[in-house]
User: Fold these one by one.
Assistant:
Number 1:
Amino acid sequence: MRVTRELLDIARTVATEAGALAARRRSEGVEVAASKSSVVDIVTEADRETEALIRGMLADLRPQDGFFGEESGAEAGTSGLTWLVDPIDGTVNFLYGIPHYAVSIAVVEGDPDPLTWRGLAGCVTNPASGETFTARDGGGAWLGDSEIHVADAVELPQALINTGFAYGSEMRAEQGAVAGTLLPRVRDIRRLGTASLDLCFVAAGRTNAYFERNLSPWDHAAGAIIAREAGAAVKGRGDAPAGRDFMLAAHPVVAAALEELLEELGA
Ligand code: LIP
């Protein structure tokens, strides 16, 4: 569809410019500007500046669309489309200079609720690695100019699993306990710190599955479209869509086996 091609071009253009700004700020040195839900849930001035750049560009290019960003909140539009923005996903990696963070921009149809929206186009770009993942509805998933697909199905003992942990200490303890009981049942676990890239790594076949609880809509909106278009099942528990309660992305066969195991482990 021409519309989603145009929307993806906008997402890619804006994310690329925002990524260049984030990389410049990283090279100049980064400091914590404030903490949010906990002392380890931090925001930097670069997060705020990058989101302001993205919000301004989208307002110029798509004035009738809604916006929902991690740092500056939501504003409804009149078009039925909303842009979901995480200006710097993997903020702690960014703060420490770990080259694994991303600008994540998605556009969805319907309310900005992951339980009901339809993802139309998404772009996740890591300025440090130069990798840009993209997808549009029905257009496949891409890393640069190369189409990507989820890895072939494997048995769980041969599965490499991505996961992540919330910022609240009580939920982190629960999540850590699940990870500890999961570890001997799979090939290995990777905690890379950037949900949008975790989803893109499943899409590219770099890991076999990703799961996490308590993600915000902007964390997964773009990566979920990319993983879906790469052939992954992207889901919540049972028949529920992916959302804050639970997010799982994997080859459909792996997803079914992992969901059953995670339910057994109390994830
Ligand atoms: C982060 C996610 C990560 C998750 C962290 C946090 P942020 O997003 O990308 O996967 O485990 O708790 O939500 O805060 O860096 O934008």
Number 2:
Amino acid sequence: MKGRILVTGGAGYIGSHTTVELQNAGYEVIIVDNLSNSKVEIIDGIEKITGIRPAFEQVDCVNKAVLTTVFKKYPDIKGIIHFAASKAVGESVHKPLLYYRNNLVSLLNLLELMPEYDVKGIVFSSSCTVYGQPERLPVDETAPIQPALSPYGNTKQINEEFIRDAIHAGASYKSIILRYFNPIGAHPSAEIGELPNGVPQNLVPFLTQTAIGIRKELSVFGNDYNTPDGSCIRDYINVVDLAKAHVVAIERMLENRSDEQLEYFNLGTGKGLSVLQLINSFEQATGVKVPHKIVGRREGDIEKIWANPRRANEVLGWTAKETIEDTLRSAWNWQLKLK
Ligand code: NAD
Ligand code: WQD
């Protein structure tokens, strides 16, 4: 066993896939999740894949007293991967204080507890949303942070600042901030995947629900953007590839492979795909048609963004490997399982 890792939000979409990869790499995982956006059955799915049941504590990271009991119960936590957060951009506009409380207080509590319990490092889930619409593409980690377009986006920026300022002020731990582009797909076993809450706002869950007949039609938000086919461009990254980057990041911190106390990495494929190209790839990969129509632009959408992942490729030695077709097939197989 390589050591204990606390995975907050480990019952969620990216957290569950990361737990699988951590266990496969020989880490002992303790999941803390309040199940506000996940189901406890995901823990069974993790166990089915790896044969190991991760420890699970149904705890709200906002509640410092209860969170402290986890550190007491599991001494010798070496590192934290902090996924727990509210993540619906639209909801954050209507309930900003809920987002600020949940996403900011959770991280504050962890940063305060880490030195007390001698935790060596924290990996933080950030987002390409911090770049807004970049002036230059592909966007690298040195691009300026733009004013946030939503309270959710603002929580990611403020969280990054919490970590930066704490380390600047002499905190003993290391941190790696991972800026994800658009995670999609599911584990190839179809034992775990994304559990959309209500009507999905994100493209791929809406698309697979349309393909299976839960939704009548997928709306393509705009075909008059300054892109080759007029629809928006994103960098869609396979969730298992994304999960693997977390294992590399935690190893890098715990094994002191870098002199830097704080590092930032883009996690993307480096390839931009338009909404229409993605629909086409899905149809090619699965043979299933997706009824869709062009509608007006969605407010607040970025026209085009894709990553320059060179730093992650060269420094972490991590590269996104899965093809878009395999990734979309995995999303479809997960949808077939969910029905
Ligand atoms: P998710 O909602 O599936 O997972 C988050 C998990 O955290 C859920 O299981 C939820 O129940 C739990 N949680 C929320 N608040 C909590 C709290 N206070 N205490 C304990 N548990 C809590 O989301 P995800 O897609 O897996 O995202 C994981 C992280 O990655 C989030 O921080 C998110 O902002 C970030 N991120 C996600 C994306 C994306 O497109 N999915 C992109 C960029 C960044
Ligand atoms: C992708 C593309 C839409 C739905 C959001 C957050 C971001 C990050 C990832 C967490 C866009 C188009 C979508 C639909 C469509 N999350 N679309 N019809 O907007 O890139 O990013 O999730 O950090 O912060 O903002 O992802 O999946 O919503 O949209 O045409 O029904 O699909 O316009 O071009 P987005 P998305």
